[in-house]
Amino acid sequence: MRLKNVPGSREVIAESEFVIHDEQKQKGKWKNIFGNENEIHIEIGMGKGKFIYEMARRNPGINYIGIEKYSSVLLRAVQKMQQEPLPNLKFIRMDAEEIAEVFAENEVDKIYLNFSDPWPKDRHAKRRLPSKEFLARYNQFLKKDGFLEFKTDNRGLFDFAVEQLPEAGWKAKAVTYDLHHNEEMVAGNVMTEYEEKFSSMGNPICKYIIYR
Ligand code: SAM
């Protein structure tokens, strides 16, 4: 994500009703935020929120939470909600390193990672969102029979993500190295902003669905 500081974005985020500000205090109580018992699905590193907004629009019976580190990027998702609000979508501005402080055991039914930052240097491997260190965090709050779905066009990052699974105690339910030509896995696929950009350049999209 190319980052431009957007003046005023922090203030807009701070005042937005679509952003949950005391996220650590909501641990174990996210159903109250939505006022129902529906499943909770989260996207970590959602960028401008194109994917999660469309998922929430298509699936009103599921609650969605989009997590993004930067206000300047999250601002775009908030603006979309200002134009056309959805009751089943909320956002958190935070670094996902703290995510296990935000959700309680079994509180999340599904996790999406889309086009996560690759952090190409070996010494930064722990910062990659599909790393074994992050899988250990997700393990603390993803429902026991829940799934995590990861898409990327970055083959190096994807190979790394697949290699992490046995060590982290996760298993693959499905893997493809060319999602858009995999009839079964592409059914119902909602494209992310990065997916549109990179697939239009001819890059194949890798995807896995994993569980423990
Ligand atoms: N998921 C979107 C898509 O597919 O179009 C955006 C992809 S963009 C390459 C990755 C996004 O993840 C960026 O907006 C970045 O700020 C966010 N991100 C990266 N590491 C993060 C972290 N530790 N916590 C929260 N957000 C993070």
How would you explain this protein's 3D organization?
- With 212 residues, the protein is an alpha/beta fold.
- The chain has one domain (9-211): Vaccinia Virus protein VP39 (Rossmann fold, 3-Layer(aba) Sandwich).
- The chain is built from 8 helices and 7 strands; from the N terminus they run ααβαβαββαβαβααβ.
- The chain has helices at 9-15, 30-34, 50-58, 71-83, 132-139, 155-168, 183-186, 193-200, and strands at residues 40-44, 63-68, 89-93, 108-114, 142-152, 171-176, 206-211.
- It has a 7-stranded mixed beta sheet with strand order 3-2-1-4-5-7-6, sandwiched between helices.
- The structure holds S-adenosylmethionine.
- S-adenosylmethionine (SAM) is lined by residues 1, 45-47, 67-70, 73, 95-97, 114-117, 192-195.
**Share of helix among residues?**
25-40%
Q: Rg, please?
A: 16 Å
* Domains (count): 1
Largest sheet report: 7 strands, mixed
Q: Order of helices and strands, N to C?
A: HHEHEHEEHEHEHHE
The first-level CATH class is given as: Alpha Beta
Tally the helices: 8
Task: Indicate the overall shape.
Answer: globular
Q: Could you write a compact summary of the structure shown?
A:
With 212 residues, the chain is of the alpha/beta class. It has eight helices and seven strands; from the N terminus they run ααβαβαββαβαβααβ.
Give me some keywords for this one.
212 residues; alpha/beta; Rossmann fold; 7-stranded mixed beta sheet; 8 helices; binds S-adenosylmethionine
